[in-house]
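dude i think i finally got it to work??
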Amino acid sequence: MRLVGFVQTGRAAAPLFCALVVLSILYGGGQSQAGEAYGVSAAILFAVLAWQTKVLMDVEPDVQRRLSRIAVGGATREIAAGLLAAVLAGLPVVLVALILPWVVGGVTTPRAGDPPLSTGIALGVWAHLLLLLPAVVLGALASRAVTGHTGRGLTVLVAGIVFAIVFGLKSFPVPWLAPPVMVTARDTVGAAHLPAVLLATGWGIAWSAVFTAVYARIRREQA
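look at this
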């Protein structure tokens, strides 16, 4: 029901168009290696996907959300259904981001000494899928069901995006407080080593799991 409402009301168009605009501007600045281009693309899409998740979850009226909880058989299933809907809604945006640079000529072929094109593409797919998870969680935490007010939700959303960038700087002492947005962008430059990829993957999954638990607890307490 969330996905149907998200699409039929036309709200799905705004995040997708936003992604197309910002990525077109990014790739319009010149060509770059696939891994580097995709790393920056994934970092930018983190904000777009978090916003899209908030929009999707806010489509459902509060009364209908409570009725849905009864219809599906409990809070856990209703919460899981909302998160799953957000992930599914994010996949088409990720697909567009992976295809767009080839359409607009934003990717250059490898030169001597550069990592192979297949490596860059694999890193790009990894980066986008990895950051999709924390983006969905952040968007869920900013939804009206948690914050109770649109203004507070936007504050949570913007603050989360800013913190993800600031905490991701190399000079920040405790970067693990935020999802690995900037780390992932840096890891896709050149031939990323397997330990770095595994560390960022574990980091992203762990961060998502912790804050998914926070989101679920808040939602259950509202029952």
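The chain is about 75% helix and 0% strand.
im so relieved honestly
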